[in-house]
Amino acid sequence: MSMKAIFFDGNEATLREDCPRPAVGPGEALLKVRTAGVCRTDLEILKGYMGFRGVMGHEFVGEVVEGPADWLGRRVVAEINCLSPDATPRDLPKNHDPNRTVIGIVGRDGCFAEYVAAPVENLHAVPDNVDDDAAAFVEPLAAACRILEQVSIASDDRVAVFGDGRLGLLCGMALRTCSEHVLLVGRHASKLALAEKRGIMTAFAEDIAAAARYDIVVDATGKADGFAAAMAAVRPLGTLVLKSTVAAETGMNLAPLVVNEVTVVGSRCGPFDRAMAMLAAGEVDPRDLITARHPLAEGLAALDAAASGDNIKVLIDVG
Amino acid sequence: MSMKAIFFDGNEATLREDCPRPAVGPGEALLKVRTAGVCRTDLEILKGYMGFRGVMGHEFVGEVVEGPADWLGRRVVAEINCLSPDATPRDLPKNHDPNRTVIGIVGRDGCFAEYVAAPVENLHAVPDNVDDDAAAFVEPLAAACRILEQVSIASDDRVAVFGDGRLGLLCGMALRTCSEHVLLVGRHASKLALAEKRGIMTAFAEDIAAAARYDIVVDATGKADGFAAAMAAVRPLGTLVLKSTVAAETGMNLAPLVVNEVTVVGSRCGPFDRAMAMLAAGEVDPRDLITARHPLAEGLAALDAAASGDNIKVLIDVG
Prior knowledge:
2 copies of one chain form a homodimer. By secondary structure, chain A is α/β, with parallel strands linked by helices. In chain A, 24% of the residues lie in helices and 31% in strands. The first copy, chain A, is built from 9 helices and 20 strands. Chain A has helices spanning 40-46, 132-135, 138-150, 166-176, 189-196, 224-233, 255-259, 272-280, 299-307; strands spanning 2-8, 13-20, 28-37, 54-55, 59-66, 75-78, 81-82, 101-102, 115-119, 123-125, 158-162, 181-186, 201-204, 214-219, 234-242, 247-248, 252-253, 263-266, 290-295, 313-317. Strand 18 (263-266) of chain A pairs antiparallel with strand 18 of chain B, so a sheet runs across the interface.
């Protein structure tokens, strides 16, 4: 059986009508994709990230059409790090197991397609009061919530998030549930406005002095100069969370990390249950971040839209 | 009253016979220096670090010759971060107070001199069973012990220290008191031998594969390529301690910190009491690291000797 999918062959992404429907391995379920989200990682994959080849996409909500009886017909999201049941015993969590596959990123087809397979243990049911548009944010919101697992945040901690893109905004929203004093630093008035209406303070990057006064700083800029600005904003003995990967092409001075005894925390995938609970409780409602949506047949246009600086979140409607 | 001292004027270090004996401020004591140690920071100061001007040196043991009666005549070492008693209230520990001075590094004369002043609250008495040569190591050994305050280390944790210089060796010794599995990675057979005789495993830097399997990795290389090698050695979810400042002149890829969710801990000055206790108990005896010593009158030769790759610890005998 074939299906429609956005396929990356190592050179370019194309819409294919004849992709094979994914095989369902032991312990897995087959999901009919309803809605998917485009992430910066997808755009990196187009540039060669992880050397990925296959069906793209890892943020989605779908419906179980094949799998255990108690899951059939349920609306679900799926954690993206997958282990086969016959993998060697784990001495690291699944998200860090060297033998893992990652949906749409490492060795496993993704969700910009009519169907996607995922381990049953990775599934999370979506409550009725979380619609598809909100559920499409569970994966990136979980990544934002990872910060809350890694760093203890008090309500009076001064928190600054650098980067007003998709991930920066979600980090700001997740952190705002813990701290009264969250500042989002960015370059786009329209994006900062989305933070402001949620009680998050905002500032333009060029207006922020290197004042070293924030207890917790999150770098979600994905840029070396953003990392440098974030490093300059963290107070001595404070914490700098790296949410986006940084590869500086020019030199980088890490001496302030030592002099100020800063703790840097690398942060990646996070807890789906906590993100889902935030959405279900209405603590975070990210749906106004959606600025464009395309049907799967126009999935390539969705990728283009996500790459443009004008859009925040772009969805691909499948089901 | 004048004294002999090694003075750095911003261009070069000279031996001066006519330096003024330091003024003793409120809450301070005057110490007659007995023995001092040369540190990498001293060599950095010769290159302009911190824009320091004044008497150099911050590692020393001395005798109290002016100050409170209960301190007079005692053999002491002194913490290097100093606050004046009329400083504004601290919301950061003294070591990070922006108004601090630092002996021989920031705004305060150092110990490559016949006399040095220090706040009484910074003094630590040296027990009789810790001789001057051992006591001269309290400051750098305390910096190594700072790691033990910042990172929880279990006896079965796999620990790797990159850098077989003075600081790397002391870090290895301090960590060896906590973990059975400490590896020192360096480039000098004679220095690695000093670690080996203490039950520390050793390896040449070129023989270490980027295997990402150490729970805790310490970078004490002071070099960008050493930092990169240390980053490659830490396991996912592990800890990378930065003991030496790194300013890369070429690009640097921090993406592995995010992908592997590594925690990076900047680490600087440490607890004198813990270091002194280690020396007094004989848990650490660093005296065989001393490879050269010069009287103060030949202090410039001591600086040259410390800059040479052949020496490990160089002392300046004063008293």
